[in-house]
Write a structure and sequence with these properties.
This protein has 278 residues and is an all-alpha fold. It has helices at 3-8, 34-49, 54-71, 77-94, 99-105, 109-123, 131-143, 163-171, 192-200, 210-225, 239-249, 256-272. The protein folds into 2 domains: 3-104, no CATH class; 111-272, no CATH class.
Length: 278
């Protein structure tokens, strides 16, 4: 049984459950068992739901399923689909990257929350996000940027209303002026939970998930860029120049994948809101 055979008999409109699993049988070593066939169908369906077309979803499964399934054999199909989707986007952004190093960077929401709760319990303090940071995150959600992938196309939505997204915004300085650099949170004594994570945790890479860090930054930047543009307005600057002026005004680094991602997101918003550019 190969991937093509599995994909061909998949009904895109159907939600696959345990009831759809055929009777268990032992198959040859070259052929995956029925359990894997069902899991691949579910993952394929999720990848399409995240905004990938059928061809891309098939390629993503062919390229990464075997390794991800082996490395995260106890993970749910939804979590495996998230890993495969994140890996694909990271490779597309950064060129050829070692799969193993990408897997080591991934931080899941459940693991993130578990570590925050551990540090809160140990310090007796709550990790609180300033209301100003939360407000910026919710503005990005209202504008719809949380739903976009690096190409500015609808994909798997991030969750600006949840602590992990807001925490990534906070440690990057959004909504306050305490941090000038991405690593300043590591020495912030006014944040005992962050201090605990930095000094006593084996999970010091909690805020190093580059996929989420890049998207949180560009979601919020895009929201700031379009804040004063009215839907349906005319004679506005094209997305590239709006982004260029914004980054230059803050002395931000120019060029690279992040700027391209930001331009794509702003371009999506302008088209969605029928803004005419020069």
């Amino acid at each position: 049984m190969n991937l093509k055979d599995i994909i061909e008999d998949l009904q895109l409109g159907k939600v696959y459950t345990d009831k759809d699993r055929p009777p268990f049988k032992v198959e040859s070593k070259e052929e995956p068992i029925s359990e894997n066939k069902m899991e691949m169908k579910k993952i394929y369906q999720l990848l399409v739901k995240y905004g990938n077309n059928a061809k891309d979803a098939t390629k993503m499964l062919k390229k990464n399923y075997k390794y991800v399934a082996k490395t995260y054999k106890n993970a749910s199909p939804a979590k495996k689909a998230e890993i495969i989707s994140s890996l694909q986007e990271s490779v597309n952004e950064g060129g050829v990257i070692k799969l193993k190093s990408l897997l080591n960077e991934i931080v899941f929401h459940d693991d993130f929350m578990k570590e925050i709760k551990r540090a809160e319990k140990e310090t007796g303090k709550k990790f609180k996000i300033p209301s100003s940071t939360k407000k910026l995150c919710m503005m990005a959600k209202k504008d719809g940027f949380h739903k976009l992938d690096y190409l500015g196309k609808p994909g798997k939505a991030r969750e600006p209303n949840k602590l992990m997204y807001q925490a990534y915004a906070f440690v990057q300085g959004w909504g306050h002026s305490k941090y000038k650099h991405n690593w300043d949170w590591r020495s912030d004594k006014s944040q005992p939970v962050l201090q605990n994570i930095q000094n006593s945790s084996i999970y010091t890479s909690l805020f190093d998930y580059d996929y989420l860090r890049g998207h949180v930054t560009t979601d919020l930047q895009a929201s700031q860029i379009v804040a004063n543009i009215m839907p349906g307005s005319k004679d506005e600057e094209p997305a590239y120049y709006l982004v260029k002026d914004y980054l230059n005004s803050f002395g931000s680094q120019r060029g690279g994948d992040r700027e391209s991602m930001l331009v794509n997101k702003v371009e999506w918003w302008l088209k969605k809101n029928k803004v005419q550019t020069r």
